[in-house]
Specification:
heterodimer, A: alpha+beta, FAD/NAD(P)-binding domain, D-Amino Acid Oxidase, Chain A, domain 2, 2 domains, 8-stranded mixed sheet, about 25% helix, B: alpha/beta, Arc Repressor Mutant, subunit A, 3-stranded antiparallel sheet, 15 helices, about 35% helix
């Protein structure tokens, strides 16, 4: 891999961050703003994996309750992006609609709405007829939907890179094209061996290595079963701007949004083809076909449109489909935020805020206990995901 | 056509997927319906070759599975995904061996005013005439470089157009300096001189060493004139249409999807697939023929097609005619040397982009101007063409960068003061051309390897 930067490293940093997705870049930004010296190592370029290639949904809607406090905190940051990073990343609070095909689906949506309201979230439930009055382009076989007006969408290609540049402006040392070969505790420091033979030292280490987060965790005795997850994404040619909300289907087999330029971006189907060793993904034709079929069923007018591109990238999937966020269970000064399981895009900006709280103050007001790595590492006490979570496999959304 | 013929001769029955209505590709394109024109009208000096190829193809048709109007939009492993336009269905073929002969399309430059109505690509102007018997306009100026520029100008003049001028960016001295390379292929030189003499006879002026080229007009009424400098003078020619072409670009998108490695060619000023034995890509079972594997022209394409057939047959364990192959290889080497001379005589004038204004559109599909590309190089800091595409959308539209990628690359190179190796090429994602959703949806077959979990 190219080394984009050969300027010397400092002799030591307060914090080293491994992984330049949105989680890592936002962490670098929040810590640098607080005056810490931060270095971030990104093997490729910031936002080149899951952060950059996902669907672009900015959704609190339908999340596992363990994620909701983090998601609520993230939502406030999405509004602040222009001040925080100097760019709005095309964030549009367009609303998010979760469609129900059956009354059973509708029941799930109602149950989730009760949970969400406990957290103070606003959720509208609508019947099939009301739904078609509001969105005349939807297919006819829908039982209803729940709507979260404050959710929305953004351009995933822009978010991590703009966080990275903002972090640099705040003083962070962002190293793209630099691979981390190994990391270990050495006395009160972390010693980080880089792929190019150099060594960096830091007091605090942040693991935001995405689908590779388990490798970093394992080197500190924290073994977790993280698997690669590749969403299969597609986009149509520009069409008249009609679909102004972001849509997802209960069960997660389709999600779609249209941007004001007219392109409809959608995913679903099955996973893309992944060669994890070579870090390569390819869209899977059968998945593209299935997603297209499902989308036409939900929005029949799209049968006339054409697909112009498909793509994928690699995210990390945890066994319970919620991320690991919080302090290490074995090593003081080590913090994790990885395994976002296909729905981390919205959460990314809050990772920096929350890890910033933990690193600077030793505590955070945002409840993340249930996302702790201890659910996998302590006596097999893996948390079961029976709580009110919709669409656990809503990849890339 | 030549590759298929070679396979048929050996007793194979290949599937031939052709995007066109009829066989012939671009150079030997046949009108979709016969319109009374003779081969000489359509193909000029190349009529004999055209007829020979069309006859060959008709002869082998019973022995091949020919599928016209079929777009191959993806290749992965041994699977070929296609869209059959006539039946409006999508599908997949499995093939152990694949010959890609995907040809080339026009190379254009984002010169001032190039998006005005009335400005066409050179190849587009030729297709309009060849396939549809229609001119792009009555008063036409031809702008660009290379042999095709003179050929199409002449075809237009013969078809009754008022060809105002040929505006050539290569200087006369440059053409003369490198013309000796054509000694490898005197027939090409003779043809080229013939085009120029015929144009002169028909009273068409040829301006050489042209620069500061502008297409003038208003977006509502279209092109009204082409202005440029040549020979130390400013010129302004009134016209209602112009055709622009600076050679052609290899269409290697399918080859890349199939796993072929690409390299930058300094002499062709573009990315081309790596080849061994003239036709083998860097993946087993993949053979590349014709201009899609580096531009060498129509005559070479016939040779390369036959060589691709030979290579495939050899890999299948057939014995091939070694002396015939030697003749072909020798001929191809000559063609490449002549092509190198042409590439030197008529270089792509990328220097015209040195003064590209910020407000000139570069990516037409997404309407992205040069300034927007330059902007994302600073913030959020794109370092290569793929990041420039991701941040600016240049190359993200209907054509997926096939038309603009080399120009976007040139802008990034200049801004970063880096060469092509550092800047890279825009990676291909399927589909290589737009595919209708309804056909895509109908083609769904469950894939045991496709999981949701």
């Amino acid at each position: 891999m190219m080394d984009l930067d050969r300027t010397p490293l400092q002799s030591g940093y307060d914090v080293a961050v491994i992984g330049g997705g949105t989680a890592g870049c936002s962490t670098a930004l929040f810590l640098a703003r607080a005056g810490l010296s931060v270095v971030l190592f990104e093997r490729h370029q910031c936002g080149s994996q899951a952060s950059g290639v996902n669907y672009g949904g900015v959704r609190q809607h339908g999340r596992h309750r363990a994620e909701i406090p983090l998601s609520i905190r993230a939502r406030t940051i999405w509004d602040e992006l222009p001040d925080l990073i100097g760019h709005d990343c095309e964030f549009d609070a367009s609303g998010h609609v979760k469609l129900a095909r059956t009354q059973d689906d509708m029941g799930e949506l109602e149950a989730w709405a009760r949970v969400a309201r406990d957290f103070g979230l606003e959720v509208d439930l609508v019947t099939g007829n009301q739904l078609r009055d509001r969105f005349d382009y939807l297919g006819s076989s829908l039982a209803g939907a729940s709507i979260m007006p404050q959710d929305g969408q953004a351009n995933p290609r822009l978010v991590a890179p703009h966080f990275a540049r903002a972090a640099e402006r705040a003083g962070a040392d962002v190293r793209e094209g630099v691979d981390v070969a190994a990391a270990e505790r050495e006395g009160t420091n972390f010693r980080i061996e880089l792929g190019d033979g150099r060594t960096a030292f830091a007091d605090v280490l942040v693991n935001t290595a995405g689908a590779w987060g388990y490798e970093v965790a394992a080197s500190f005795g924290e073994s977790v079963a993280e698997a690669p997850l590749s969403p299969n994404m597609l986009v149509t040619e520009p069409l008249p701007y009609r679909v102004k909300c972001s849509f997802g289907m209960c069960g997660g087999d389709i999600y779609a949004r249209q941007i004001p330029r007219g392109n409809v971006i959608f995913g679903g189907g099955t996973r893309a083809i992944t060669d994890f060793e070579k870090n390569r993904t390819r869209p899977r034709t059968s998945s593209s076909q299935l997603a297209t079929r499902n989308l036409i069923h939900a929005m029949p007018f799209l049968a006339e449109a054409r697909i112009i591109r498909s793509w994928s990238g690699i995210d990390g999937l945890m066994p319970d489909k919620i991320p690991v966020v919080g302090p290490s269970s074995t090593t003081a000064g080590l913090f994790h935020a990885f395994g976002f399981s296909g729905h981390g895009f919205q959460l990314g900006p809050a990772i920096g805020a929350v890890l910033g709280d933990l690193i600077l103050d030793g505590r955070t007001d945002t409840s993340i206990e249930e996302l702790s790595i201890t659910r996998f590492t302590q006596d097999g006490a893996g948390v079961r995901t029976t709580s009110n979570q919709l669409n656990p496999s809503e990849q890339g959304e | 056509m030549r590759a298929a013929e070679t396979l048929v001769k050996a007793g194979l029955r290949p599937v031939v997927l052709d995007e066109g209505f009829k066989a012939g590709g671009q150079i030997y394109r046949q009108p979709p319906v016969p319109d009374g024109r003779e081969p000489e009208d359509l193909y000029g000096s190349e009529a004999e070759k055209a007829c020979a190829l069309h006859e060959t193809f008709e002869r082998i048709r019973p022995n091949i599975d020919y599928r016209p109007r079929t777009l191959v939009w993806n290749v992965i492993g041994d699977s070929v995904d296609y869209y059959d336009e006539s039946a409006d269905v999508a599908g997949r073929l499995q093939a152990s061996h694949l010959i890609l002969a995907t040809g080339a399309t026009d190379r254009t430059l984002p010169l001032p005013g190039w998006t005005l109505p009335g400005v066409y690509s050179l190849g587009g102007a030729q297709i309009s005439l060849k396939a549809h018997h229609s001119l792009i306009g009555q008063e036409v100026v031809f702008v660009g470089t290379g042999p095709l520029l003179y050929l199409v100008s002449l075809q237009y003049a013969k078809a009754g157009a008022d060809v105002k001028a040929v505006v050539e960016t290569a200087s006369w001295s440059n053409q003369l300096r490198h013309a000796s390379g054509l000694a490898h292929l005197p027939s090409a030189a003779v043809r080229g001189v013939g085009f120029m003499l015929s144009l002169r006879r028909m009273g068409v002026p040829i301006y050489r060493g042209a620069h500061a080229i502008r297409f003038e007009g208003e977006s509502d009424c279209g092109l009204t004139a082409v202005s440029f400098e040549s020979g130390g003078r400013s010129h302004r020619l009134s016209c209602i249409a112009a055709a622009m072409g600076f050679g052609v670009r290899s269409e290697w998108q399918l080859a890349e999807l199939a796993g072929a490695q690409l390299s930058w060619s300094d002499i062709q000023q573009q990315w081309v697939p790596d080849l061994t034995d003239h036709v083998r890509a860097s993946v087993d079972g993949l053979y590349l023929a014709g201009d899609g594997a580096g531009v060498c022209g129509a005559d070479a394409a016939e040779v390369r097609g036959e060589l691709a057939g030979f290579a495939l047959l050899q890999d299948l364990g057939h014995s091939v005619d070694a002396s015939r192959r030697q003749v072909l290889e020798k001929s191809l080497k000559k063609q490449w040397r002549a092509r190198a001379a042409l590439d030197r005589m008529y270089p792509v004038p990328m220097h015209l982009l040195d003064e590209l204004a910020d407000d000139t559109l570069v990516c037409r599909c997404e309407a992205i101007a040069a300034g927007e590309i330059r902007h994302v190089l600073v913030r959020p800091g794109a370092e290569d063409v793929n990041r420039a595409k991701a941040f600016s959308r240049a190359g993200m539209g209907r054509c997926q960068g096939r038309m603009c990628a080399l120009n976007v690359q040139a802008i990034v190179e200049r801004a970063k003061e880096q060469g092509p190796q550092a800047i890279g090429w825009q990676r291909t994602q399927p589909p290589i051309k737009p595919v209708p959703m309804a056909a895509m949806a109908d083609a769904y077959v469950p894939d045991p390897e496709g999981t949701r979990e």
